[in-house]
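**User:** Everyone, produce a chain:

**Assistant:**
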Amino acid sequence: QLQLVESGGGLVQPGGSLRLSCAASGFTLDYYAIGWFRQAPGKDREGVLCITSSGDSTNYADSVKGRFTISRDNAKNTVYLQMNSLTPEDTAVYYCAALKFRRSYCPSGRGEYAYWGQGTQVTVSS
């Protein structure tokens, strides 16, 4: 059974950092593009970052440029989202998603992703 499990969320003060993990089970991530998405209360789910199967990354959201980075460790079957300089506007449930996609570019949006995790809550507050 293909499964994605996010972890690493929590409560952090403004300006702080968190690293989210997205661990896959039931399949290997080698040939998959992985995207991170987030959904704040009352808002649509939006894309944050994506990483291709070859390790190239693409920003879906301008608001995280220079603050968030995405990386993957295929040996651990895990993708990470490093979030720095967090602001209250980053508060949301964060989801990872996967698509078997051996391209040098990322899928164009959330509708293309086939598998989703259950999400992890990130709250930025003093």
